[in-house]
Amino acid sequence: QVQLVESGGGLVQAGGSLRLSCAASVSIFSINGMGWYRQAPGKQRELVAVFISGSRNYADSVKGRFTISRDNAKNTVYLQMNSLKPEDTAVYSCAASVGGHNYWGQGTQVTVSS
């Protein structure tokens, strides 16, 4: 069983920044797939940024503004979000693929005011 705990969400004005953290209950050193998704009200969940086999992949809508990073020693993945826009408002969830199973955190709310 893998537990993922997100933190760092909140309310920010457009143009501001937030950093989300996802702490895993297991070592993330060998986890090939891990990253961030988001779901806005009335919309489907979408990929934001993920590590896949060591490569970073981003949604087109966040390229150049968001950066995913990881600290294996802390078993934590981060999402640095800059130049936030109202359309970035959503619940952001961390996910990890381990041993053929997909695990999800509880999510953290990010609200960007105009």
Topology:
Elements: E1 4-7, E2 10-13, E3 18-24, E4 33-39, E5 46-52, E6 55-58, E7 66-71, E8 76-81, E9 90-98, E10 101-104, E11 108-113
Parallel strand pairs: 2-11
Antiparallel strand pairs: 1-3, 3-8, 4-5, 4-9, 5-6, 7-8, 9-10, 9-11
Protein described:
The protein is 0% helix and 56% strand. With 114 residues, it is mainly beta. Strands 2, 4, 5, 6, 9, 10 and 11 form a seven-stranded mixed β-sheet that branches. The protein has a four-stranded antiparallel β-sheet with strand order 1-3-8-7, with no helix packed on it. Strand 5 and strand 6 form a beta hairpin.
Features:
0% helix, four-stranded antiparallel beta sheet, globular, 114 residues, mainly beta, seven-stranded mixed beta sheet
Q: Beta-strand level of the residues, as a percent range?
A: over 45%
Structural class: mainly beta
The number of E-state strands comes to 11
**Quick check: average pLDDT?**
95
- N-to-C order of helices and strands: EEEEEEEEEEE
Largest sheet: 7 strands, mixed
- Unreliable stretches (pLDDT < 50, length at least 5) are none
Distance between the termini: 40 Å
Q: Output the radius of gyration.
A: 13 Å
Number of helices: 0
- Overall body shape: globular
- Share of residues in helices: under 10%
